[in-house]
Amino acid sequence: MASHAIFGLLVLCGASAHAPPRGRSPEGPVLPTHGVVGACAAPAARPCGVCVVTDVDDTLKSSGGWMLGGIALGGVDSSFSRGSYYPGVVQFELELSLHGLPPGQPPHDAAILTARAVELLAFLEIAPDSPLCERFRAAGAEMGCEWRVGDVLYGSVQEWICQERKGARKVRNFAQLAARRRAAARGEPAAFIFCGDSGWSERDEEAIDGISQTRLLSAAFVHVVSDDWSAGAPRVPPDRTTADGVPVAHFLTYPGAALKAARLGLLGASALLRICASAERDATRDPRNLPAGGLNDALLRTDLAEARAFAACAERAPAASARWPAVGAADAGAGKQPAADGDASPLLPAR
């Protein structure tokens, strides 16, 4: 049944069974850096800062829980309508990219790891002029910096049919991304922070564990989603640390994610407040998904209140302890750049 659905989708989209899609390598459909961004010359060396690596569907914006022949088209989340961005998500990823940078140093471009099939790029490509990429550029411009989506690495139809392969594919794509960024940074690797979702549950957690083994990951943030909100919000799994010492934080809203990032020393108080303001602004513009008094509105307001209370305390006592104090503790202190907004918490180093 699943294979019939995929075949029908390929026919519908006009995919050719003979000509390999653009970007396909001899080893399989691993896409290089897309479009104009991939053609740019290597940037100047950036020995500090992080590259935020993000999923798209159910992480940046909702898949709506659409299904075809029993197979999810991008994700499972039914709490927001398909294509709707989660409040505060872009500002959250931008602030992670800016934290700890010295004055005047631009942030690393964001990178995307997505399960979207490379065979269907004619319909699913995340192009440099897409609305998604424009959101990233606009957020950077509002903060007075150049920030954009850089590398985009895709999955394939194979993972749609055999979904147990999704985790391994993301691990391979991350390794490829890390190699590119090392070369672009002239031999000085940046740390990475991964933002994903719980839509594929065990496979997503396995992917995070696999990526953490590269010892390049500083933290992972997992947006908890569900295809059934009839009984209320889904249970949020406990935060954990991988076998390689990488903190993994689970959350329902992006102010909630920002609060956990601040506790980890990955955001300062001012950044936390900016994310809250962005989320509130986004919510005001989206009454369809966040009607007053609805569940999404209530969850957001709860996390906004907690995040702002934490920021108020942090501004009075900036040296707030991290939730996982052992992570990066040995690297704190001499030689570390303070955060741009005055918070003294060190950037968690790559392992």
If you average the pLDDT, what whole number results? Answer: 76
Low-confidence stretches: 1-44, 318-340, 342-351
Number of strands: 9
Element order: H for helix, E for strand = HHEEEHEHHEHHEHEEEHHH
Radius of gyration: 20 Å
Helix percentage range: 25-40%
| Percent strand | 5-15%
Calculate the terminal CA-CA distance, rounded to whole Å: 43 Å
Strand order of the largest sheet: 5-4-1-6-7-9-8
Molecular shape: globular
Number of domains: 1
Counting helices, strands and paired strands, the structural category is alpha/beta
Q: Total number of helical segments?
A: 11
Largest sheet: 7 strands, mixed
Helices and strands, with pairings:
Layout: H1 2-13, H2 35-39, E1 50-54, E2 67-68, E3 71-72, H3 89-98, E4 110-117, H4 121-124, H5 131-142, E5 149-155, H6 157-161, H7 166-184, E6 191-197, H8 202-212, E7 217-223, E8 240-241, E9 247-251, H9 254-263, H10 269-284, H11 295-316
Helix pairs in contact: 3-10, 7-8, 9-10, 9-11, 10-11
Q: How do you describe this structure in short?
A:
With 351 residues, this protein is an alpha/beta fold.
Architecture overview:
With 351 residues, the protein is of the alpha/beta class. The chain has one domain (48-321). Helices cover 36% and strands 13% of the residues. The chain is built from 11 helices and 9 strands. The chain has helices spanning 2-13, 35-39, 89-98, 121-124, 131-142, 157-161, 166-184, 202-212, 254-263, 269-284, 295-316; strands spanning 50-54, 67-68, 71-72, 110-117, 149-155, 191-197, 217-223, 240-241, 247-251. It has a 7-stranded mixed beta sheet, sandwiched between helices. A two-stranded antiparallel ribbon has the order 2-3. A hairpin with a 2-residue loop joins strand 2 and strand 3 (71-72). It is globular and about 45 Å long. The termini are far apart. 48% of the residues are buried. Mean pLDDT is 76; it is low at 1-44, 318-340 and 342-351.
